[in-house]
Request: fold
Amino acid sequence: MPGNSTASSRSTVLGRQLGEELRRLREAAQLTTSEAAEALDCTKGKISRIENGRVTVRLPDLTAMLHAYGATDTELRDRLTVLARKANRRRRQGWWNQYGSMLADTYRDYIALEAMADTIRTFQAQLVPGLLQIPEYIRAVTVASRQWQTADEIEQFVQVRLTRQERLSGESPLHLWAVLSEAVLLQQVGGPEVMKAQLEHLLAMSERANVTIQVLPFSRGAHASMFGPYVVLGFPEEAALDVVLTDTPTGSMWLEREAEVARYRELFDAARTSALSPVESLSVIRRRLREHRT
Reply:
């Protein structure tokens, strides 16, 4: 299934137009993003993402923002309401929405943000990052999760992940920097033959200028990222705030407060510093691949 980048682009354009209008109103009201967030009982990150056109602006949120900014002009309010409805309608045309209820809301939100991000930094404790997984590996992970029961559901999820991987190619490819625990190379996902093909794929992907892979070996001992995987998404807008998605025992969780995001940036910097260099990491992957061949 194609990525439907045209619909996504139109959605982004309309969202940014609305965001710029809301930014102008906030600044006219002499409110900082922090003050606006406090007035709306939300995070500074949410205000930033709205103003950068990266998220859907629900009409109740729009009404609350216009009230907080003292925007009482009826014609202006009506125009922005129409613009928000158009942007939301276009955003619903994103290719990920064609998979309906089989995708959790958090995952759909992640794909939407991933489509607009220009960098992803991720630490993975046991699994190859989704953007680097081969179909057989994806299928094995999907079956093991037991979240999808029928063969059709499983194949749809495989296709979703493969379509996401289109962000690594094209005119403006996503820059992916992945730090992998050595456990990722040892976990027998799908069996030896699947792992052999997956390791070969990692080596091939590492040759791309926009993909950096590092391995954090067991020999480095305890480290700050041992608690689990996380993803830090970065966006091209100069004033945009990074967003973090982290896994917890009860599901995935978004983090967007500056202090929280800064903490994960520090964690990733520590992980990549502790990890082997990209060149050394490829040697480890090749060695593991040779073990599969013998």
Q: What stands out?
A: The longest helix spans residues 5-28. The mean pLDDT is 86.
